[in-house]
Amino acid sequence: MRRHVKLGIKQLTSGYTKGQLTPQTVVEHALEDAVKLQTLNAFIRLTPEQARQQAKEATDRYAKQQAKSNLDGVTIAIKDNFCTANVPTTCASRMLENFVPPYDATVYARLRQVGAVLLGKTNMDQFGMGAGTVDSIYGPTKNIWSADLSQDNWRIAGGSSGGSASAVAAGLCFAAIGSDTGGSTRNPASYCGVVGFKPTYGLCSRHGLIPLVNSMDVPGILTRSVSDCVEVLNAVAGPDAGPDSTTIRKTYKKLTLPEVDQINLRTLRIGIPKEYHCEGLSAEVLETWTKIADLLETAGAKVHQVSLPNTAASIFVYSILNQCEVASNMARYDGIEYGHRANDERSTEQLYAQSRAEGFNNVVKTRILTGNFLLLRKNYDDYFEKALRVRRLIAEDFIKVFETSTETDRVDILLTPTTLTDAPLYKDFSSLTNRDQCAVQDFCTQPANMAGVPAVSIPVRLSKAGLPLSLQLMSNNLNEQLLLTVAHWIEAQVGFDCLQSMNKT
Ligand code: GLN
Q1: Which of 200, 310, 347, 355 has the fewest CB atoms within 10 Å of its CB?
Q2: Residue 135 in contact with residue 125, Cβ under 8 Å?
Q3: For residues 191 and 196, what is the distance between their CA atoms, to the nearest angstrom?
Q4: 3-state class (DSSP) for residue 321
């Protein structure tokens, strides 16, 4: 089981170059393993035909020494809210159950251009609304670190990109694309013990990513190491101004990670935002947070407490703006223009209503109703407008700590928890409403989406229950080079071993 999990992307492709392995063998193993690990429910759909064809082409290229890149022949998975030409893209919903896009999302198209091989489309919360991968028409995704996957006391994978995190943690593929609107890449990465990266808003194209909250959505990257994450980022980032006018126009300069022993932390300033010491933070996460702060300090970084005073308001503002944008985005699914069409011929209005009643789950319906209520003329100023103003204040908190504070107060990186605990049991988590689930799960992650700044979750150690505990790093817009360099350094110090979950499967 999970035969190539020990390899990083560079080692894998160097194995291909030396003829020790071929993309075809790796794909066959991955397909076999994915079937054996079906109980995880990481994939909505495997794509064996594409995978075999793409792997064959990659194998031929290596045989002719014409590999396209460091990602040629590398197996990847894509969350099922990214369009993939001729492969169904469902958003885990009845509404899009039969949607087969005619085109590829830019991030997938770019991965294909460099030779990556699509293993399948991964499970998620319907339309990305959730934090557990528990609300999918295909059933929930399980966390591979659960003590027992067959019993009813298994752990959630986190969400909404739980399928992508689960596939990477289980060693079924080397990287997966998720999406991150309020934490959906970092949250499942944290629970599954993998790296989960949210780029600066606009660095990676949203073209072909089915929108949840356009002003916050970004494609996310899930891998087993920071250096693998950089490989993928370098392939997908950069302007895409035609299809997505919100991408940053500046040419993307590829990142290179320094060797760990070349990383000098002496000029680095780390901020510990005091507002993230919040209710519900477990003793183990707090201890992990303190331990890493101490580690950075010992290595010469200047670590000090900072304040992001609007953090407590952020979760409410996020929720208001999320529901308003959802109400507007979901309007297109009426059974005529887009999506599932009910068998109802009474009237056009009835057809709309019935199609939407059948096509959406209760979480989506609740957000649409609430969003439309908040957008009513009489409520617009009190909720939507006000939330936009507070969002600005939240973004300014970040600008202040990263840019405008006095020399002594300014920081380069913020260090916080990603999630407040280790992965909850499904039975406990699913007894809460989606609103309550998100209020806890998104606390530490959504501020980065409100401000647009880049953030990464990295696994640090195991909890007493044997589950991954992770931390989040955030930095200023477009400061990915520093963010991922520091993450790479911490990763090397803690030596988190993702293979430990192998004993369990
Ligand atoms: N939990 C958040 C929500 O449901 C985040 C979703 C996401 O990032 N896609 O809105």
Answers
A1: 347
A2: yes
A3: 10
A4: helix
Distance between CA atoms of 156 and 169, rounded to whole angstroms? 13
- Asked if residue 505 has pLDDT above 60, the reply is no
314 is catalytic: no
Q: Is residue 137, in this structure, part of any structural domain at all? A: yes
**Could you report the per-residue pLDDT of 372-427, keeping only the tens digit for each?**
999 999 999 999 999 999 999 999 999 999 998 777 789 999 999 999 999 999 99
Residue with the smallest CA separation from ligand 1 atom 5 is 182
DSSP string computed for 133-147: S---TT-PPBPTT-S
Q: Whose CA is nearest to atom 10 of ligand 1?
A: 129
- Which helix or strand (DSSP H or E) is residue 121 part of? strand 117-122
Residues near ligand 1 with C-beta < 6 Å?
A: 128-131, 160, 179-184, 212, 322, 438, 441-442
Distance 24 CA to ligand 1 centre (A): 36
> Given pLDDT bands bounded at 50, 70 and 90, which one contains residue 242?
confident
For 472-483, write each residue's pLDDT tens digit: 999 999 999 999
Q: Is 463 a catalytic residue?
A: no
CA distances from 227 to 8, 196, 231, 487, 491 (A): 8, 12, 6, 10, 10
Q: Is residue 91 part of a domain?
A: yes
319 is catalytic: no
The model's pTM: 0.98
Query: Which tokens sit at 415?
Result: 């260090």
Range of the domain at 157: 3-264+457-468+494-504
* Percent of the chain surpassing pLDDT 90: 93
Pocket test for ligand 1, best of 81, 129, 418 (most atoms within 8 A of CB): 129
**Angle 471-9-454 (CA atoms, 0-180°, nearest 5)?**
35
Does the residue 475 lie in any domain? no
From CA 297, how far away is CA 422, in angstroms rounded? 25
The Å distance, Cα 372 to ligand 1 centre, comes to: 18
CA 308 to chain centre: 24
Does residue 152 or residue 486 have the better pLDDT?
Answer: 486
Catalytic residue among 164, 179, 184, 319: 184
**Closest atom of ligand 1 to CA, residue 129:** 4
Q: What is the domain count for the chain?
A: 1
Give the CATH number for residue 140: 3.90.1300.10
pLDDT digits (tens, 9 = 90+) for 122-145: 999 999 999 999 999 999 999 999
Residue 2 has pLDDT above 70, yes or no: no
Note whether 197 and 233 are within 8 A (CB). yes
Ligand 1 atom closest to Cα of residue 318 = 10
Q: Ligand 1 mean position to 41 CA, how many Å?
A: 20
Q: Which atom in ligand 1 lies closest to the alpha carbon of residue 319? A: 10
Residue 11 contacts by C-beta under 8 Å, 6 or more apart in sequence?
A: none
Q: Pick the catalytic residue: 93, 160, 314, 501?
A: 160
